[in-house]
Write a structure and sequence with these properties.
The structure is a homodimer. By secondary structure, chain A is α/β, with parallel strands linked by helices. Chain A has helices spanning about 30-35, 50-55, 60-70, 90, 95-105, 120-135, 145-150, 190-210, 210-225, 230-250, 265-275, 280-300, 305-315, 340-350, 375-395, and strands at about 5-20, 45-50, 75, 80-85, 115-120, 140-145, 160-165, 165-175, 180, 355-360, 365-370. In chain A, strands 1, 2, 3, 4, 5, 6 and 9 form a seven-stranded parallel beta sheet that branches. In chain A, strands 7-8 form a two-stranded antiparallel ribbon.
């Protein structure tokens, strides 16, 4: 009997919208994206809120309930919003995923109903995983509320939780139905989150867009003054570059060995874990980028001037380029708590050959399949020195 | 800021191969499909075996280990095969999924390594779910060992486990890397499993292929004599029709309301649950098909002659068209243990409008969006009478 060979093609379509004060009565965006005008019955929505957000927006849960009540012909909010602690805590404890899957069961959410997640990137990752696995995937509305989630993770097609001590070990690729970026949430973000989210903008600029890097250099001071106009532009350009990459790179579900958007991320993921998640993802990414840029410089791949511009931009943005965890166990590179173990873990998560993106100039990247660990250790030492001098010059 | 709208296209490709005695030394199929000749290092494989299979093939685990040892330049079997109880038990207890995800973590299985599942449809569903969620999806080789899994679930693109009392509540759409149908495993299948797997062949013939239905009618006696040649043809045609459907129906991941392959399945899923899984999936499907065919007949959608041919074919195949669970709580149709509750559960799992496939003649189907519960209750009563008379005539 001859074998049967089949190609199956799937098309996903989703959009990212930009707004402010999404849940204020006069804002029609949510009704528009739910296509309520075409529905015979109200759209069922199960809402999940990031607890961290409620400190600054204590009225949010009530606002959402009122919004849905005033539009009850269109939206059927099937319970009061479920509030879950945000940050990595929600990805580390499996009980949250189970709790949400059970809520989807209990409230009769189907593949044509919606789960709406409002919060930071970690919460969106966790809720996305629950939504993608219940009924083999119910519709997901993401309302990212941090710089990092609005410009990076929240606009992408992944979800995940941590397991067995590994970041993002469990997850799926599952494009959201729609992403709603609400700028108002950024105004109440703690400075540390505001700043750290910018690291992913630096990353995507370094990989793909020299002019965007110049924009960041020119506007670093304004960004530190929390200029909302500059931040809006930053987020828009990041989202644009991110989606363009997913749609055109030829491997959106990452079945190959290459993952060009993960510049600096092998070290970043390991640093987050080693710091027991006291480092924010963006903070760890800034260090990871600085590290791989330094490595590229020492390997004569990246001109010294470009390397210096990168470190200077991080300084101007108030982002450290070194953390003590970088130097832990560096004398025993095989120790699982040595930063270098992150290389193997990164390869394993992705699969196939080790493939690390590096930059050769601002806006241009290559991929390498081996890392010289001696040069990497020198890069860490160089960053440590830079950091020490820089800290001293501040104080 | 204008919204960003993006289309993302994914292409999957997989093949189904037909063989006998896959793990005998001289059989090259496994090496061929792993493309071992192109790999620089041996392909890492984590193997999971269905315990039920080992009763009839006690040497299987050793055979697999020897096969991999003799081909160690190509295959790196990273542990002795993991043996798990097959059947719905493996889908009902969440510990098995967690155990496999942990094994994938522990043995360093990456997106370019393989999980190979050998067993019946339930085990393949469960292993597939674990493989699809670890690292956002590692490669899966399915070796289905029952009629039902070789002709239906094992060649499709779904995986799942049961949760919160609902069949297949958790799962993903994730095409396997490759499916290897080994005919030898069918020779040792208990008669009950041999027979019940044929129900899905009747289903796909009724929906899509009148000539295939005639083939089943003509060969019913040979099938009951366990003629392997007829069974091979049956499985091949089913697999062909199944894949053709997935690739060409325009909605492989079932985002719409229509699910034409699920003829008879609203009742079948509910019957399995009501019988506490003492009914095999195929047995429940036979009853579900008979029920919806009877309903179509009573609704004047299906000619009497076609209806009778269907019931007669099930008789000739030794498949009952009635189970007592059909009549439970029929006087209180809103009771959750009434078979009619299956309609709402089916709608909810799929989402959107209730959409039930029915047949109008052998080989032709339509979809209806409402079911007349009075007529459905009459259909149950008619089947009960048919069953009683038929049972009496046998004894």
């Amino acid at each position: 009997l001859r074998s049967i060979d089949q190609i199956i093609q799937i098309n996903y379509r989703y959009s990212i919208h930009f707004t402010s004060r999404l849940f204020q009565d006069e804002n029609p965006l949510l009704l528009d994206v739910l296509h309520c005008d075409q529905a015979l019955t109200p759209m069922k929505v199960l809402c999940v809120l990031d607890e961290t957000l409620l400190y600054h927006h204590p009225q949010l849960s009530k606002d959402i309930q009122l919004y849905c009540m005033h539009n009850s012909a269109c939206i059927d909010l099937c319970s009061t919003p479920i509030v879950i602690q945000g940050g990595e805590a929600s990805k580390n404890d499996p009980k949250y995923v189970t709790m949400l899957q059970e809520a989807i069961h209990q409230y009769g959410i189907c593949r044509h109903s919606y789960v709406m997640a409002v919060g930071g990137g970690a919460l969106l990752d966790m809720v996305g995983y629950a939504a993608a696995t219940a009924h083999r995937g119910v519709r997901l509305i993401r309302v990212p509320t941090t710089v990092l989630s609005q410009n990076d993770s929240g606009v992408g097609i992944k979800n995940s939780v941590n397991a067995f001590g590994k970041k993002n070990f469990l997850g799926t690729f599952a494009p959201p139905s729609v992403v709603l970026n609400d700028a108002h949430f950024l105004t109440t973000l703690p400075m540390r989150d505001w700043r750290s989210g910018i690291a992913e903008a630096v990353k995507v600029a370094l990989l793909k867009d020299c002019l965007f890097f110049e924009f960041l250099e020119e506007n670093a001071a304004r960004l530190m003054d929390r200029d909302m106009q500059v931040m809006s532009k930053l987020i828009y350009r990041c989202a644009q570059l991110h989606l363009e990459h997913i749609a055109t790179n030829g491997d959106p579900f990452e079945s190959g060995s290459s993952r060009p958007l993960d510049f600096g991320h092998w070290a970043a993921h390991k640093l987050e874990q080693l710091s027991q998640y006291s480092l924010r993802h963006g903070e760890a990414v800034a260090i990871g980028i600085a590290l791989d840029a330094t490595y590229a410089y020492l390997m004569d791949l990246l001109p010294a001037h470009d390397w210096q511009r990168i470190l200077q931009l991080f300084s101007a943005l108030g982002l450290a380029v070194y953390a003590n965890e970088l130097s832990n166990y560096l004398s025993s590179p095989d120790h699982p708590d040595c930063i270098l173990a992150g290389l193997q873990e990164f390869r394993e998560h992705l699969g196939g050959r080790l493939t690390i993106p590096l930059i050769t100039s601002i806006g241009h990247s290559i991929e390498v399949n081996a890392i010289d660990t001696n040069v990497m250790m020198k890069s860490i030492e160089l960053l440590r020195q830079y950091h020490t001098i820089h800290e001293e010059s501040i104080s």
